[in-house]
Amino acid sequence: MMATRCGSLTVQLLRCCTLMLVFAGLVAAAPTTRRFKWDVEYIMWAPDCQQSVMIGINGKFPGPTIEANAGDLISVEVTNSMHTEGLVIHWHGIRQIGTPWADGTAAISQCPINGGETFTYEFVADKPGTFFYHGHYGMQRAAGLYGSLIVNGTDQQKEPYADEYDGELNMLLSDWYHENVYAQAAGLDGKGKHWEWVGEPQTLLINGRGQFDCSLAIERDRKTCDRRKTDAYCKEGDKSERCELIRRSECGPFCEGTQCAPVVFDVEPGKTYRLRIASTTSLSALNVHVEGHKLTVVEADGNSVAPFEVDDIDIYSGESYSVLLKTDQRPQAYWISVGVRGRKPKTPNALAILKYTTSKSEWPAAVPPATPAWDNVTRSKEFTYKIKAREGTPRPPTTVDRRILMLNTQNYVDEHIKWAINHVTLSLPNTPYLGAYFYGVESVAFDAATESPDTFDRGYDIKKPPEAQAPAAQAETAVSNRVYKVANGTVVDVVLQNANALEAGVSESHPWHLHGHDFWVLGYGEGMYEHDRDFKKLDVTSPPLRNTVVLFPNGWTALRFVADNPGVWAFHCHIEPHLHLGMGVIIAEGMERLHELNVPKEAVMCGQATRAAVPLAPATSPSPPSP
Amino acid sequence: MMATRCGSLTVQLLRCCTLMLVFAGLVAAAPTTRRFKWDVEYIMWAPDCQQSVMIGINGKFPGPTIEANAGDLISVEVTNSMHTEGLVIHWHGIRQIGTPWADGTAAISQCPINGGETFTYEFVADKPGTFFYHGHYGMQRAAGLYGSLIVNGTDQQKEPYADEYDGELNMLLSDWYHENVYAQAAGLDGKGKHWEWVGEPQTLLINGRGQFDCSLAIERDRKTCDRRKTDAYCKEGDKSERCELIRRSECGPFCEGTQCAPVVFDVEPGKTYRLRIASTTSLSALNVHVEGHKLTVVEADGNSVAPFEVDDIDIYSGESYSVLLKTDQRPQAYWISVGVRGRKPKTPNALAILKYTTSKSEWPAAVPPATPAWDNVTRSKEFTYKIKAREGTPRPPTTVDRRILMLNTQNYVDEHIKWAINHVTLSLPNTPYLGAYFYGVESVAFDAATESPDTFDRGYDIKKPPEAQAPAAQAETAVSNRVYKVANGTVVDVVLQNANALEAGVSESHPWHLHGHDFWVLGYGEGMYEHDRDFKKLDVTSPPLRNTVVLFPNGWTALRFVADNPGVWAFHCHIEPHLHLGMGVIIAEGMERLHELNVPKEAVMCGQATRAAVPLAPATSPSPPSP
Question: What does UniProt give as the signal peptide span (chains A, B) (predicted)?
Answer without folding.
Answer: 1-29
